[in-house]
Design a protein that fits this description.
It is a single chain. The chain is mainly alpha-helical.
């Protein structure tokens, strides 16, 4: 640019051809450096396969260019395409997609099974089943659904039999497996009646055939007398413990029924028999007689009560006894009586049933006292001791014939 008088002469500032060549060279150098940096950092990215499975477009073009396979556009100088047809990388990608699809389907089936299970358990609660029964149904069915290969509408009877066969091989008791089979039948029948299943896969399931039931463990008369004599009648705690033991033995109550008793459920006259109102299994209401020894023990305990708590038996914190608390109390007295091979408050229920049937063999009356829905449940208490069998054959009339004995 030069000055000529008052006029300014302008000269073109456009670069010459040599400068343009230099600019292209520097652009190529920068582009190569960028590609080298990307290649160096690429192995650090976990989702990418190895670098050798990629093809690069290193052609020096400006703007957006298509990749070699014309799949997408990139604004980078170096364009990364899809993996090449390497057998290793393609097979891994296919397996990953299949596994993801299977996982999504399993998650959907699991949610569907859980939703149907909650509906079934809700229906059981509305029918009046106890919380313990609903919990047992939940445990058995959750274990079954976790072992099934798919949703119930795709399950075959053979799949159910295989699940219970595995439980039997794992050492689960036959009675527990039969309970789970019964829960499965009820669950499938519920889904069939609701229109969720076309047919019930558990309809053809058969329970495991059990052998003759073993006689329940019980205490002898001498052991019961030794146990009931342990609580001290001179202290309020001893009078309470004696009332608990006396009531368990003389009425055959379940421990849950004992814990749920309130003062208003007991009628204790000064003389004669008392009465007890109990809500048993299945919310069945029945009345039990209280003999005089148990009534006297209860009256002695209630004479120490000066509180307004409705619960019949209170622990040392002044609250209603829990099932665990009663179990600990009974086991403590059993150990003090020298009985270590048997434990639990249900032992006194077995003892009550055994002694009641031995005193007066009226199976139907004992069934009513125990609150059993089926007489077959009560029949397991009809076992005979060796002494009973010996007494039965001791006085056979033929043994007194002359020349015998």
């Amino acid at each position: 640019m030069t000055l000529s008088g008052s006029r300014i002469a302008t000269v073109s500032l456009s670069p010459c051809a040599r400068c343009r060549e230099r600019r292209v060279v520097w652009a190529c150098v920068l582009r190569s450096a960028l590609v080298a940096g990307v290649v160096a950092l690429l192995p650090l990215a976990a989702p990418w396969p190895r670098v050798g499975s990629f093809r690069w477009d290193l052609r020096p073009r400006r703007g957006a260019r298509r990749c070699l396979d014309n799949s997408t556009e990139h604004s980078l100088f170096a364009c990364i395409t899809r993996p090449t047809s390497s057998p290793m990388s393609y097979r891994n990608l296919t397996l990953s997609q299949k596994e993801a699809k299977v996982a999504r389907k399993q998650a959907q089936d699991r949610k569907s099974n859980e939703r149907e299970l909650e509906e079934f358990l809700g229906a059981l609660a509305l029918e009046g089943r106890s919380a313990h029964s609903v919990g047992a149904y939940r445990r058995d069915l959750e274990a079954l659904l976790a072992a099934l290969p798919g949703p119930l509408d795709e399950v075959r009877p053979a799949d159910l039999r295989e699940c219970f066969r595995r439980q039997q091989q794992a050492g689960r008791s036959p009675s527990s497996i039969n309970r789970a089979i019964g829960a499965t039948r009820s669950f499938c029948r519920f889904l069939f009646e609701e229109g969720r299943l076309e047919t019930s896969p558990a309809q053809a399931l058969r329970s495991i055939r059990l052998g003759p039931p073993l006689a329940p463990k019980h205490l002898t008369v001498a052991e019961v007398q030794r146990l009931l004599s342990l609580p001290s009648p001179a202290t309020p705690t001893g009078r309470r413990d004696r009332a608990i033991l006396m009531l368990l033995y003389n009425t055959g109550l379940r421990v849950g029924e004992l814990c749920a008793l309130s003062r208003e459920d007991v009628r204790l006259p000064a003389e004669g028999w008392g009465a007890l109102q109990v809500v048993g299994k299945g919310r069945r209401l029945h009345r039990l007689p209280i003999n005089r020894p148990a009534a006297d023990a209860l009256l002695a305990y209630l004479a120490d009560r000066d509180d307004a708590e409705p619960a019949l038996f209170l622990n040392r914190s002044g609250q209603r006894f829990s099932v665990r608390g009663i179990a600990l109390l009974v086991n403590r007295y059993l150990r003090a009586a020298g009985i270590t091979d048997r434990s639990g408050p249900h032992l006194l229920r077995h003892t009550f049933a055994t002694h009641a049937l031995r005193a007066r063999p009226n199976l139907r009356a004992v069934q009513e006292l125990l609150g059993h829905a089926w007489v077959t449940t009560t029949q397991r208490y009809t076992h005979l001791e060796v002494e009973d069998l010996q007494a039965q054959v001791a006085d056979l009339p033929a043994n007194y014939w002359r020349g015998v004995g």
